[in-house]
Amino acid sequence: MNTDPVLSVAGLSKSFRAVKAVRDVSFSIPRGKTFGLVGESGSGKSTTARLVLRLVEPTAGTISFRGRDLAGLSSRDLRAERRHMQMIFQDPFGSLNPRMSVRDTLVEPQLVHGIGTPAEQLKTAERLLAEVSLPRTALDRYPHEFSGGQRQRIAIARALATNPEMIVADEPVSALDVSVQAQVLNLMRDLQDRHGTTMLFISHDLRVVQFMCDEIGVMYLGEIIEQGPRDRIYGAPAHPYTQALLASAPGKAGSQRARLKGEIPSAHAVPSGCAFRTRCPHAFERCTTEKPAMRDIGAGQKAACHLLDTAVAA
Amino acid sequence: MLRYLGKRFLLILPTIFVPLILVFLLLRLSPGDPAGMMLGDQATAEQIAALRTQLGLDQPIWVQFLLWLKGIVTLDLGNSIFFREPVMQIIPRYAGVTILLTVVALALAVLIGVSMGLLSAMNRNKPIDRGVVTTAVLGISLPEFWFALLLIFLFAVTLRWFPVAGYNPPSAGLIAFGATIFLPALALGVRQSALMTRMMRSSMLDVLNEPYITTARAQGLPESTVIGRYAMRIAAMPVITVAGLSAGYMLGGAVTIEIIFALPGLGRMLVEAVGRRDYPLVEGGVLTISLVLAVLNLAIDLVYAILDPRIRYQ
Amino acid sequence: MTAHVAPLAVDLVSPQPERRTVLAVENLGLSLRNADGLLPIVTDVSFSIREGEAVALVGESGCGKSITASAIMGIAPDNAVITGTITLNGKVISGLSPRDRRRLCGRHMGFIFQEPMTALHPTLSIGRQMTDTLKHNLGLSQAEATNRAAELLDRVGIPRARDILKGYVHELSGGMRQRVMIALAISCGPSLIIADEPTTALDVTIQAQVLDLLDDMRRELNLAMLFITHDLEVVGDFCERAVVMYAGDVVERGLSDDVVRAPAHPYARGLIDAVPAHDDGRTRLTPILGTVPPVGQWPEGCRFAPRCARADAQCQTRPALEQHGRTDVRCWHPLEENA
Q1: CB of A144 within 8 Å of any CB in chain C?
Q2: C214: pLDDT strictly greater than 90
Q3: Nearest to A241, CA basis, from A268, A212, A288, A276
Q4: Does B144 have pLDDT greater than 50?
Q5: C5 by DSSP, 3-state: which?
Q6: Which residues from C are below 8 Å from A267, CB to CB?
Q7: Angle, CA B15 vertex, CA B13 and CA B21 arms, to 5°
Q8: Quick check: B117 and B196 in contact, CB under 8 A?
Q9: B–A touching, 3+ CB–CB pairs within 8 Å
Q10: B306 vs chain C: nearest CA distance in angstroms?
Q11: β-strands A166-170, A198-203: how paired?
Q12: I want to staple C169 with a disulfide (CB 3.0 to 4.6 A). Which of B129, C95, C120, C289 is the partner?
């Protein structure tokens, strides 16, 4: 069994003219695990998702998928690789073609990648529907006949159609009601267990990420400022931003709440030194002049903060 | 704001020059000879040739073009071949009439269009709405000349409220002027008002569903303010666009109306001049219309920028 | 569920001066009139809000919480037929035409929307929008209104208020826009504020700021607040009492601590179980099976019965809202407190 990580990105960056949307992002995902990217507006998590699939061309950095450098592939080879990576989007209304029946939607990826005979493709479509707990009669229906949660299931089924090694899910449950969210999240966990799919899971909802992910990267203004196993991030967050993020979530009432002041800076004007210093309650001089490097804290956790330096040195 | 207007101004130049170049070329390259037309059937070949040289028509076409460009810059548009007068003196006599006609027609169109459209939108699906929409559809389908003849028959011949034809300039008194301009303006404007009614109606219906209208109502603002200020500001934009296009259409399409009502306008003058191959006069006429349209569109762009601050900063 | 300190625990122990009831809704029903007749959207909704109190109206999409609010404010759709009684500051307003009810908005009721980007006018300046309402509702002059607007923006934590007044919505960030909405809502000194999912569209850290602001405003101005949300954890943090709705019905009502920590209605319990909690090690969530019945297709009897594990023949008849333990529940088989 291949023990190399399925996905490994290093130094990934993307700039849109003056806006540095993603800056020097590095992480890797072992086979069968789920890596979560958490962040607020402008964090660059959605752009990172698209970079990983090379839906957007990176400005710098490497993307190693199944041992091959994606950035260096020709468009034909890239297309062949695409069958091993699939995506689920946030909007259950927009991500399905309203003019294609469910059958067409599920067969199309197989057609595109030349998988199986028409009879086999249909059988696969039926099997996929069963896996996402939708009735076989759904095959002939169209997206507008389904609810948001059901559409998301169809999108998941479609993502599984080519039996991909990796799925990138960009806010897959954010547009759904709580009770439906639970159904879809359970489904995603079940499918992952059954197929051993590796997943990159993007969300702004800390509770969902805690449920779904094994390892988490916290992003702020285009960078990963903390990264580590789930229990460490949620149990002992090292970076002030992660701490504030967790403390801001509803459900932590009373004195536990620490409020971050100020607004998230615009991506056009990223603060010098540490990008978080404008809102950090513990910022000091060094934070303005020197950008903190990612430091190992132990147990697989890393964070980029000058405070950790003094703590370690102390 | 200045940058925006500056950019818009630069775009005007092709708007003026492209039609001019096209007209220039089409005229001079088409069959028919002004010299021959002026001298009549009895003229000899030498006489025609002599007149041609005198008028500069024997020069190669690109020389004629350059000479003409020079003329524009020095504001010397040459002499009308037929009238033997400077074009710069002939045009204003006729242009004034057409511009007045267009202005009155536009004013009527906007008045009728906006009020009917508003009435329709506020009473959606009620009988009055259906009545207005049906009338608007009829209005769009009417040819202006047919409507003009109908108006003459009804109001001039039968009811004798207005003169059948002829023109009194404003200097002859407002009532006299109004009597001769009203029917032509109505005939010219009715189709445009139907277009504006439909545009106003659909635009207003869209805007009324927007959340900011609900907020305005939730502030307890009177309905007149909600519609008159909050809704109209946004809903009026597409109507202004239509008004601009209408003005262009009216300036060019006033020909039939001018002929039917015997108004000494630019349209009529142009048609006759083309028939005579009176090149300088035709070019002068087209230049005038292009200029007026260009200025009008610049004015509309200015109005957009005033009404919508988001446009200023593009 | 994580336990947290109930902010008003002290009230249960010591006597409190009587707080005036600002809003009282009794047996409110709303139906839409269409070609086939009347389509019920909301049935038999009753709750009250006292001054300085925040009451949450909780439910998922389609439960009728937003349209209930719009009925109170007089901005329900034209074909809405409203029954029941709505009393504001002691005066019955349900008898008024929607237009007259709307006149009370601004001066007596304020409204905060979910999406401030689209809820504020895009091409009128912020200052214009604020002074319009101040001038109309309070009769202030232009200068007085501008000053008051600047004060309000300051109070809600917007820096450089005078500059912002001249600016436009698209120039502000999400958090700033929501602060403007709050300033607008409280500008004419209303006694009731209705906030419809005011923080759902905001980033988590900004959400926290805005919720704090709303809380401060409520305390400072002694506002009665109707807080519409789908997020139970927000309810637990900020609202004193909660009203849970499902398919047009009120299914549970009581102190938010009780409703959120130990609800008696199976649906409310289901909602809590469906949310990934912070620190339990479940590998699977417990979703509520099935989907919400669409309007017009409500079952006879208890509307939640088709999805309820505890349903039996008795649930074919519609239960009444009755007190059970610490909360009012509409259920034949409510859960016990230690369930």
Answers
A1: no
A2: yes
A3: A276
A4: yes
A5: coil
A6: none
A7: 90
A8: yes
A9: no
A10: 9
A11: parallel
A12: C120
| Residue pLDDT, tens place only, B194-227 | 999 999 999 999 999 899 999 999 998 999 999 9
Answer whether residue C2 shows pLDDT above 80: no
Taking CB atoms and an 8 Å limit, are C291 and A264 in contact across chains? Answer: no
pTM to 2 decimals? 0.83
Q: Which of A183, A208, A247 sits opposite C287 (nearest CB)?
A: A183
Mean pLDDT of chain C: 87
- Find chain B residues with C-beta within 8 A of C107's C-beta: 220
Model confidence at C16, in pLDDT bands (50, 70, 90)? low
Residue of higher predicted confidence among C329 and C279: C329
What are A64-114's pLDDT values in tens digits?
998 888 888 888 888 888 889 999 988 888 889 999 999 999 999 999 998
Per the listing, tokens 């960030």 go with C173
Residue C212 CB: number of other CB atoms within 10 A? 15
Domain assignment present for B27: no
Q: What single-letter DSSP state applies at residue C253?
A: E
DSSP letter (8 states) at residue A74: -
Task: Tell whether B233 and B269 lie within a shared domain.
Answer: yes
Distance from CA of A79 to the nearest CA of C (A): 35
d(CA B198, CA B121): 10
Q: Which residue among B18, B49, B73 closes a domain?
A: B73
Confidence check: pLDDT of C65 > 70? yes
Point out which residues pair with A10 in neighbouring strands.
Answer: A62
B194 and B53 co-located in one domain? no
Please give the Cα distance from C134 to A114 (Å, whole number): 66
User: What backbone phi and psi angles, to 5 degrees, belong to B56?
Assistant: 75, 20
My answer on whether B97 and B140 are in the same domain is yes
**Closest listed residue to residue A29, CA positions, set A51, A58, A2, A9:** A9
Model confidence pLDDT, tens digit, residues A152-202: 999 999 999 999 999 999 999 888 888 888 889 999 999 888 999 999 999
Beta strand ranges found along C210-272 (DSSP E): 224-229, 241-246, 249-255
Residue B276 structural domain? 88-313
Residues B65 and B189 in one domain: no
Residues C248 and C159: their CA atoms lie apart, in Å, by 42
SS3 for B128?
Answer: helix
Q: Which of B21, B43, B73 is the last residue of a domain?
A: B73
